[in-house]
């Protein structure tokens, strides 16, 4: 189905990305040709992004178990998500966040005491925030989002608001400050998607 598609191989723990061409995909085994084998390690897990004009971008996790004649052989392949499926790149989370600044229209509110919010689901494009406070639906929240031992600044622009079970929910779109922040957030989402997919397979 995806034969001869462009492939990007992303290291799970670093920023390294290697490109190649998918030659075969059968029985959870991927065969990828590339001229850049030296940056990859055997018995290591990678994210595999298969780029197809018909199917969009499909992302998998797989283990590299053989390198031969500029060909990479991956096995134990797990499907994570496709960007063509609505909301399929979202992951469920439960992350407590402190909001120190809120913009409403042209007004900026620097808060002496932070608003406590909880991120309930997350994608590279935005987040669903939960809060006990009834805030304007036009709010823009400035978040410090924790990723591993770091934090990145996220601007979350509220696009929808609803009330459910005594809590207010704010569906927000991100404005990322830098490509590095986008890379860190994307890696965080992929890792959590992988964990959730593996847990799902055990049920």
Task: Write down the overall mean pLDDT.
Answer: 84
> How helix-rich are the residues, as a percent range?
10-25%
Strand order of the largest sheet: 1-2-3-6-5-4
Radius of gyration: 20 Å
What is the ordering of alpha helices and beta strands? EEEEEEEEEEEEH
* Biggest sheet overview: 6 strands, antiparallel, barrel
Shape: elongated
How much of the residues is beta strand, in percent? over 45%
Number of strand segments: 12
Q: Low-confidence runs (pLDDT<50, min 5 residues)?
A: none
List the total number of helices: 1
Structural class: mainly beta
User: What is the straight-line distance between the termini?
Assistant: 28 Å
Task: Summarize this entry quickly.
The chain is mainly beta. It has one helix at 179-201; strands at residues 6-11, 17-26, 29-33, 44-52, 56-68, 71-82, 91-104, 107-122, 126-131, 139-147, 150-164, 167-176.
Give a verbal description of the structure.
By secondary structure, this protein is mostly beta strands. Helix content is 11%, strand content 62%. It contains one helix and twelve strands. It has one helix spanning 179-201, and strands at residues 6-11, 17-26, 29-33, 44-52, 56-68, 71-82, 91-104, 107-122, 126-131, 139-147, 150-164, 167-176. A six-stranded antiparallel beta barrel has the order 1-2-3-6-5-4.
């Amino acid at each position: 189905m995806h034969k001869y598609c462009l492939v990007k191989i992303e290291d799970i723990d670093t920023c390294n990305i290697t490109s190649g061409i998918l030659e075969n995909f059968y029985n959870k085994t991927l065969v990828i040709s590339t001229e850049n084998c030296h940056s990859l390690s055997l018995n290591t897990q990678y994210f595999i992004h298969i780029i197809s004009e018909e199917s969009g971008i499909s992302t998998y996790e797989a283990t590299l178990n053989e390198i031969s004649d500029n060909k990479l052989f991956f096995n134990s392949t797990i499907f994570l998500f496709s960007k063509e499926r609505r909301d399929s790149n979202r992951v469920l989370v439960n992350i407590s966040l402190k909001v120190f600044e809120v913009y409403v229209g042209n007004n900026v509110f620097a808060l002496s005491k932070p608003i406590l919010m909880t991120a309930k689901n997350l994608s590279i494009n935005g987040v669903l925030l939960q809060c006990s406070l009834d805030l304007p639906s036009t709010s823009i929240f400035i978040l410090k989002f924790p990723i591993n031992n770091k934090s990145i600044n996220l601007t979350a622009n509220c696009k929808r608001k609803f009330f459910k079970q005594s809590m207010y929910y704010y569906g927000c779109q991100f404005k990322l400050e830098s490509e590095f922040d986008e890379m860190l957030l994307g890696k965080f989402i992929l890792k959590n998607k992988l964990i959730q997919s593996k847990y799902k397979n055990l049920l």
